[in-house]
Amino acid sequence: MEVKAKARHIKMSPKKVRLVANLVRGMDVSAAEAQLTFLKKAAARPVLKLIQSARANATHNFKLDGDGLFIKTITVDGGPVLHRWMPRAFGRATPLRKRSSHITVVLAERVAEGAPKEIAKAVVKKDKTTEDSEKKTEVKKAEEKKPAAKSATADKKAPAKKAEAKSTKSDQPAAKKATKKADSDQSAPADKSKKSSS
């Protein structure tokens, strides 16, 4: 269910109001109200009043739970512009454009897709702090596992590399000895033949 509320002819430029509207788009209504209450922008007040009006419409007219609502869309459109002028030097007049805005808010219920309404409401009411704490603990566990896994793999790789290095070093002298023995074995029969001939 979607609930709409409009504020028209707000005497503020749309560009300035959009800065505030972009800040609260997609937020839960209670979080958006808290954010706008302490925001130091003049446009925060009309946007806050409009969100509170939309929430009141939802609870009074449609019997919805105000805690399960979020800001689905919020748009700021330009309203009528008053053209004025200001006298300047040498008899000139510079134009002044006194802009106005139309703000539209659409609130909707946060519902888990495919779930019954009772379950969806329970999901919405779940405390965000517990979700944040669960995420933090998962991240900590993952970080603890990573260094342990890295050191284990490093330990596994290091002895293998050392063993390979030792085997290659030990193989080289053995290979040299074998070649020397083979050379000496080949030269030995030649020497014997020379000795026997003499």
> How many alpha or pi helices?
5
Question: How would you name the CATH homologous superfamily of the largest domain?
Answer: Ribosomal protein L22/L17
CATH structural class of the largest domain: Alpha Beta
Give helix % range.
55-70%
Structural class: alpha+beta
Give the biggest sheet.
3 strands, antiparallel
Approximately how much beta-strand content do the residues carry? Answer: 15-25%
Strand ordering within the main sheet: 1-5-2
Q: Outline, from the CA principal axes?
A: elongated
How far apart the termini lie comes to: 118 Å
CATH level 3 topology of the largest domain: Ribosomal Protein L22, Chain A
Rg from C-alpha positions?
Answer: 40 Å
- Total beta strands: 5
Question: What is the typical, i.e. mean, pLDDT?
Answer: 80
Oligomer: single chain
**Which architecture name of the largest domain does CATH use?**
Alpha-Beta Complex
User: Which residue ranges are poorly predicted, with pLDDT under 50 across at least 5 consecutive positions?
Assistant: none
